[in-house]
Amino acid sequence: MPEPSTDAGTETLSFGPLENLFGYQLRRAWTILRKDFTASVEGLGVRHLSFSLLSLISDNPGINQGKAGEMLDIQRPNMVSLINEMNERGWVERRTDLQDRRALSLYLTEEGQRILAESFNRIEAHEEVLLGQLSSAEKDQLFDMLKRISAS
Where would I find the HTH marR-type domain in this sequence (predicted)? Predict the structure, then answer.
């Protein structure tokens, strides 16, 4: 929890009731995670959404483009732009879905697999540093609680 700061050394400033709001603390934690994530994957061209999509495609080769967007809660126009960008980078390829010729299935290229592996290694290291002050049991408990909140 950040300490109250002073403005020009004369007045102590406080976060007030924000300090006791779960959403505010979660947002502050997310801001720190996001900054460190960005620094850890610097030079790879990976963002949160592209990493999530690479991971999803890796675990579900041939996943339908629409289903992937639905799972990651990405609106269709944004999904198309993201896949176009990843395709241009040579990370993902689209193939006509054999079951529904109107749909496109997504597959990682070798370069996409390489970028995912490198990103994953860097992200694991970044999370280890950020969560290093927590015990293994605390990490498990936090992860379980976040998954329950996400599922609601």
Answer: 19-151
Ramachandran class of 16: left when φ > 0, alpha when ψ lies in -120 to 50, beta otherwise: left
Question: 63 and 57 in contact (C-beta within 8 Å)?
Answer: yes
User: At which residue do the structure tokens 């990843």 appear?
Assistant: 86
Cα 48 to chain centroid, rounded: 4
Domain positions in the chain: 20-151
Cα separation, 127 vs 140, whole angstroms: 13
Q: How confident is the model over 107-132, as pLDDT tens digits? A: 999 999 999 999 999 999 988 988 99
DSSP 3: P
The first and second tokens of residue 15, run together, are 């976060």
Q: Using an 8 Å Cβ cutoff, are 112 and 55 in contact? A: no
- Kindly report the CATH number that applies to the domain delimited by 20-151: 1.10.10.10
Q: Rounded distance, CA 120 to CA 118, Å? A: 5
Reduced to 3 states (helix: H, G, I; strand: E, B; else coil), residue 90 is: coil
